[in-house]
């Protein structure tokens, strides 16, 4: 068993998870640990170096979250019509365009006094292409 797997198991225990063998079959704590350990097992077998590991992790993380790897261009092949006159970007689902222009519906994320994040109609940010998606976090306590 790799050091990476042993590290992950220790960290799950520190977080309060029960050991996998003590979890019931339907327990989400069991399957999330199994899933993460499986991914780490594959990653460990790939024998990345100190140079390639962060690069691989960064690309995998973006793709696993359906994020683009490079700027959106706004070209015709990046759009699908989701409603009459409303288009959604196929490379990044939070980007839309309509008769008024293109926008990112999560361009701003608000943080309330209790630390919870939320979006609203005020989260929409107009964009131009090429566009590298970004999110501005706005702490309501600082407003």
Commentary on this structure:
The protein is α+β, with helices and mostly antiparallel strands. A hairpin with a 5-residue loop joins strand 5 and strand 6. A five-stranded antiparallel β-sheet has the order 1-2-3-4-7, with no helix packed on it. Strands 6-5-8 form a three-stranded mixed β-sheet, with no helix packed on it. The chain contains three helices and eight strands; from the N terminus they run αααββββββββ. It is extended. The model has no long low-confidence stretch (mean pLDDT 95). The longest helix is centred in the first third of the chain and has 18 residues, at 28-45.
Task: Produce a short descriptive summary.
The protein is α+β, with helices and mostly antiparallel strands. It contains 3 helices and 8 strands; from the N terminus they run H-H-H-E-E-E-E-E-E-E-E.
Task: Show the helix and strand layout.
Layout: H1 3-15, H2 28-45, H3 52-64, E1 79-83, E2 86-89, E3 95-98, E4 101-104, E5 108-111, E6 117-118, E7 125-127, E8 136-139
Parallel strand pairs: 5-8
Antiparallel strand pairs: 1-2, 2-3, 3-4, 4-7, 5-6
Helix pairs in contact: 1-2
Number of domains: 2
Name the beta content range: 15-25%
Low-confidence stretches: none
From the alpha carbons, calculate the radius of gyration and give it in angstroms. 20 Å
* Global outline: extended
Strands in their spatial order, largest beta sheet: 1-2-3-4-7
Q: Average pLDDT value?
A: 95
Number of strands: 8
